[in-house]
Design goal:
The structure holds 2 protein chains of 2 kinds.
Chain A: E1 3-7, E2 10-13, E3 19-26, E4 32-38, E5 44-52, E6 55-58, E7 64-70, E8 73-78, E9 87-94, E10 100-102, E11 106-110
Parallel strand pairs in A: 2-11
Antiparallel strand pairs in A: 1-3, 3-8, 4-5, 4-9, 5-6, 7-8, 9-10, 9-11
Chain B: E1 4-7, E2 10-14, E3 19-25, E4 30-38, E5 44-51, E6 56-59, E7 62-67, E8 72-77, E9 86-94, E10 101-102, E11 106-111
Parallel strand pairs in B: 2-11
Antiparallel strand pairs in B: 1-3, 3-8, 4-5, 4-9, 6-7, 7-8, 9-10, 9-11
Classes of the chains: A mainly beta, B mainly beta.
């Protein structure tokens, strides 16, 4: 069966510090991968998606970036965090445009 | 631009009641619609996926319907239980596009 992991589960970082969140998927090959952000009181916002290694599409201009160094690994990064980057970050995968499955999320607080 | 709306934003019912959650979307050119459940501080759990060619899907006590032409979907929960308390989100995917759009969710509380 397929599983999706995210770490860390929670993170508290000061403004201006770098960020690296990791997502890995097991039990499937060549999945579509997604990064979402869920801010308090707001819906999910798609940040990035990837249909293959090294292929990243950005949905929202921001100071975040994403990379896919391996087939089942998706990384969300920032060189300098802003207060507005606080939120709940969710990684998801799907086979092509089929059903999406989400990871447990990372709670990021920028102080 | 696709807009997804969920009404009501919050709902509280006594245990045992049947209930309906609503989802509406502005662009009927969708590929599929997915209902999720989210517990506080957790990720999303997929409940049901309806393809654009389908009218409904059922899983246990859950039944989701889709009326693409009117831009509506409903999630019916039969015989609600306290364990059903969570936020329910719907999301629509457009054709040949990965830009899935989510509603803000309905926060359901089932009181014992």
């Amino acid at each position: 069966s397929q599983t999706i992991h995210q770490w860390p589960a929670t993170l508290v970082q000061p403004v201006g510090s770098p960020l690296s969140l990791e997502c890995t998927v097991e039990g499937t090959s060549n999945p579509n991968l997604y990064w979402y952000r869920q801010a308090a009181g707001r819906g999910l916002q798609l940040l990035f998606y990837s249909v293959g290694i090294g292929q990243i599409s950005s949905e929202v201009p921001q100071n975040l970036s994403a990379s896919r160094p391996q087939d089942r690994q998706f990384i969300l990064s920032s060189k300098k965090l802003l207060l507005s980057d606080s939120g709940f970050y969710l990684c998801a995968w799907s086979v092509k445009v089929d059903e999406q499955y989400f990871g447990p999320g990372t709670r990021l607080t920028v102080t | 631009k696709q807009e997804v709306t969920q009404i009501p934003a919050a709902l509280s019912v006594p245990e045992g009641e049947n209930l309906v959650l609503n989802c509406s979307f502005t662009d009927s050119a969708i590929y599929n619609l997915q209902w999720f459940r989210q517990d506080p501080g957790k990720g999303l759990t997929s409940l049901l996926l309806i393809q654009s060619s389908q009218r409904e899907q059922t899983s246990g006590r859950l039944n989701a319907s889709l009326d693409k032409s009117s831009g509506r979907s409903t999630l019916y929960i039969a015989a609600s239980q306290p364990g059903d308390s969570a936020t329910y989100l719907c999301a629509v995917r457009p054709w040949h596009n990965n830009d899935m759009r989510f509603g803000a969710g309905t926060r359901l509380t089932v009181k014992p």
